[in-house]
Amino acid sequence: MKYLFLIVLFFPSVLLAQNVGDRKFIQDVATVYTVEQGLPAGPVDQITWEQGTLTALAKGTLYKFQNEAWIPATGKSPSRNIEKVPVPKGTKVLARVRYKNEWAVGTDEGLYLYEGKKPVKVYPADSRYSWSLRNVAALAVDSQGRLWFGSDEGVGYLDGNQWTLFTGKEGLPYTNFTCAAAGPDGTVWFGTERGAIEAQNDFFRYRASRRWLPDDYVLDIAVQPDGTAWIATRGGISRIEPKEMTLEAKAVYFTNQVETRHNRMGFIAQSELTKQFQIGSSQVAISDNDGMYTAMYGAAQAFRYAATGSAEARELAIRSFRACKWLVDITHEPGFPARVIIPADWHEPVNEQYGRAYNKKRQETDPQWKDIYPRFPKSKDGKYLYKIDTSSDELAGHFFFYGIYYDLVAKTEEEKQEVRQVVGDITDHLIRHGYKLTDHDGKVTRWGDFSPEYFSSVYGYDQRGLNSMMMLSFLNVARHVTGDVKYDVEAKKLRDTYKYHIFALHPKEYFPAENVVPWDNNLCLMSLYGLLKYETDPALLLMYRQSLENAWLHISKQKNAFWDTIYEALANYFTRLVDQKTFARTDLFPENHLYAPSVVKNHYRAANNPAYILENLQKIPLDLIGYTIHNTHRLDVVLDGTPGQSEEMGWRTDGLALPVDERAHVRQDRDGFALNASEGDGYSEHEGTFFLLPYYMALYHRLLD
């Protein structure tokens, strides 16, 4: 399949945004080599790049790298200078490097610089620190002639007569050094007992876990002139290449990834790997949120079509719409969306897995678990099974996508009518059942209750902010798409009688910890998109703008491109409304004449840093396998001390979440502050929608200029 990106030359904003997509950046790409690529099991003691040849020493045997494999080679390993240098008696040499035609030697007792053959112990100091070093196990001289060291105290470099020192407070992730090697442009790679660190001036990149290394204990490093780092570990070798790439090229890559490994009958979800870490063993899988993830992919392609004019994007958006509509059309009554559709002969015994015995057992630890059977009813034609007990996640995805698809993709009256039909069916189902998603047993689904009674109950009080806002959003989308004012009447009733708009001012739970789940941020922000975009009442727009700010502030430090993109797009929309004098009226909130001007003043402009959107998009790794990753040991991390919070939550010392390529989660619906986590432990690959949607949405809204 060819992936076309057509620039609409007569549309200046598209041209400007497209240039952003063509701008080059460095994408780190890791390739791991172990037994399957010819290495022996166990440690690789030495790796050397010399005169264009890469060799490794493992278990006393020399290996040469050739055609992406390691082949036993004859001869001796490349020599390393083993010239003996005098050191103080009783010290153990851990590292040495030539520096200014003399030696720098790291020992267990400190760092020594040589004057002639006389070692002089040095005590690095700058304006922040003064150190007597211990265990200087890493030394390197960078391309700018600076001497770098790694010790128990931290990292530092000597530039002329000036020391600069770093600890966790300055962003150093870890110590316990084992080796170091210089690269181009002043970079230095450090090996540690728990990963590798790339240092460049005052910034550190941490490369640990199976995403980057076959084993975290690093034994040796070699760096090519182009910056490619070869890292020898106790479990094999990793190559980390700094590849030039553009956002458009990355989008092509991820579109191909989704289409090749994550498309099941038009539905998009993660895939399963039958062999750990092996992409070649990928097979399509189902998730509880096939509808949401398919809708998000469809929205990505709709924004792509609107921003670039790509015919392929339009085709993919239409396919995604038909898949989402099928989820609604297949079920027991009009308007109830299924979670999943699978062929009747699906390889997993899904109904047996969710039988009555399972449900009763589940209720012992989760009393609200719904006991319904079959959980996968059969379609009327007998060809398919579909999963019920549908949640609010699915609704958020459907309504988010349908509004975007209606505005940006549907052209003909027939195409628009299809959208009107499915949106009307879902919304009418909710209204007909008292604002509840109702299963084939006549009872509400576990997470599909938007009713006033639920919000007044002990089970639903904590959901009322989010679910009230979502219900109002669904009604706004329905009125916009169908043009039917009955949905305005329903929304007015929910506001006037049940105060849904008041509850919506607090659209997301932030405390206690057990009530806070990161995927609710997706539900919240995707629903706010339709709520604000299609609202016409100035008073409500002011309230919903405040709601947006309340929702975003809680996640503003997570560097999540999707959440930041929705926030900034809506905040900019509000700015335009202010500039158009939408709120320059005296009849808004007459009981408190200060409210409207206060909201306008405080929220006139977006409060996010747009650079974080670009940074996140660039750093999303090409490898979306779910790995088990631990970061609580890092020195540059501050643990979250919130009462009741997990001990495995925290952020960098700069107050922001770790870069996405160093986190356990690559999905954009997870908590960026989660330090220790597993997203499949190497047995799943996640879909590239988590790059495509924020990228094309940001491109469409001109947020990457």
TrEMBL record:
Record has Signal as a keyword: yes
Coiled coil: none
Record key words, sorted: Signal
Signal sequence, start to end: 1-17
Protein name, as recorded: Transcriptional regulator
